[in-house]
Write a structure and sequence with these properties.
The protein is of the alpha/beta class. It is built from 17 helices and eleven strands. It has two domains: 263 residues, Rossmann fold; 77 residues, formyl-coa transferase, domain 3, CATH 3.30.1540.10.
Length: 402
């Protein structure tokens, strides 16, 4: 008998598009919530046609991001569409929206509307800058918010333009924060007479939340952390080194005992026993010399040989993997990092969603749905809508059905 997922029985209405809000919806759906995604009747979520497309003209990304979700089309720009949305929200446990602040209110769907009609509602809002503050009304894409929130400033090499990872990290960080907020609010609701609340998630603040010790260091010393290329300021050695075959590896030898093992295995007992290098503070003072020694040693060997030697010495080290190498990696395979889902009669591989739960794991049950695939079934189930009402809404262009 299949194991019950931890969020089964939780109804989630996802209103928004692209990445930040939908990423939270993907996580919630994976772990069992019934996630109903509201999309415009004409083209749906733009993510459907972003980046690489399959033979049907649908984004490969869509298969993963919209997994386990139900697609309902609804024109939120018209009064009838807003009425239907209001009725759906009244039936939900959780709302996740990532429109610009004020948009939901302009449709008559702000959180205050549901205080009496659905007091258990967890109204989760994801935006660039949050619902309040002088920047609240500004458009906030992850590319901009990563800069505003401090992440871009510390990325890259000194004296060069700041860089970004070739991913929308700000969006996914915000999506993770949104899911955390939903789970915290659900726990509180269970212990507080069923009361819901608003969860306000900002992409800027989600990025800002990742800044580790940057804030207290600045407050205490005035130090502004700068970009440091392939290293991390104040932790030595931890760097990326080229090997003889042109591949790069990462070595994290910054623990005191690890550093000694690292130096001995590369034949530098003198550095292993040097009292100046016995702790991190001393190694920071001699970072350049340590990195030069490690770089020279790595450059004399192929990456695989280098990693084998370091593994035998119990020194943390690893390759810089491309997705091709990750897919072939036996560790990822044994850990269940890939799942297969049917798309148009063909199997498609998507990443599993982590973390792994021992007794109540999540799973990918179906790929991203066709536009409006579940419109009729959800309206019948959630609102008890009859065929006459559904036909009327279709004729008015308020909804579309497959």
């Amino acid at each position: 008998m299949p194991t019950k997922k931890p969020l089964e029985g939780i109804r989630v209405l996802e209103m928004g598009q692209l990445i930040a809000g939908p990423f939270a919806g993907q996580m919630l759906a994976y772990f069992g919530a019934e996630v109903v995604k509201i999309e415009p009747p004409d083209k749906g979520d733009p993510l459907r046609s972003w980046r690489l497309l399959d033979e049907s003209g649908t984004s490969y990304w869509w298969s993963s991001m919209a997994r386990n979700k139900k697609s309902v089309t609804l024109d939120l720009s018209c009064e009838q569409g807003q009425t239907i949305a209001r009725e759906l929200i009244d039936q939900a446990d959780v709302l996740v929206e990532n429109f610009r602040p004020g948009k939901m209110e302009s449709w008559g769907l702000g959180p205050d509307v549901f205080l009496s009609s659905n007091p258990k509602l967890i109204y989760t809002r994801v935006s660039g800058y949050g619902q309040t503050g002088p920047y609240a009304s500004m458009p906030g894409y992850a590319s901009v918010c990563e800069g505003v929130g401090g992440m871009r400033y510390v990325n890259g090499f000194p004296g060069e333009a700041p860089v970004r990872a070739n991913l929308s990290l700000g969006d996914t960080f915000a999506g993770l924060h949104a899911m955390i907020g939903v789970l915290l609010a659900l726990v509180n609701r269970n212990s507080d007479n069923g009361k819901g609340q608003t969860v306000d998630v900002s992409i800027v603040e989600s990025v800002f939340n990742m800044l580790e010790g940057v804030v207290p260091e600045f407050h205490g010393t005035g130090e502004i952390r700068q970009p440091s290329g392939t290293t991390v300021t104040g932790i030595v050695p931890t760097n990326t080194y080229p090997c003889a075959d042109g591949k790069h590896i990462v070595i994290g030898g910054n623990g005191d005992s690890i550093f000694k093992r690292l130096m001995r295995v590369i034949g530098r007992d003198d550095m292993a026993d040097d009292p100046r290098l016995a702790n991190n503070a001393g190694r920071v003072e001699h970072e350049a010399a340590i990195d030069d020694v490690l770089a020279a040693w790595c450059s004399s060997k192929n990456a695989s040989d280098t990693l084998e030697i370091l593994a035998e010495a119990n020194v943390p080290a690893g390759p810089i993997n491309s997705i091709a190498e990750i897919v072939d990696d036996p560790h990822f395979q044994e850990r269940g990092s890939f799942e297969s889902v049917d798309v148009g009669g063909e199997a498609r591989v998507v990443p599993a969603v982590h973390p792994k739960l021992e007794r109540t794991p999540g799973s990918t049950d179906w790929a991203g749905p066709d536009l409006g695939e579940h419109t009729q079934s959800v309206l019948r189930d959630w609102l008890a809508a009859d065929e006459r009402a559904i036909d009327s809404w279709v004729k008015q262009g308020v909804i579309s059905v497959r």
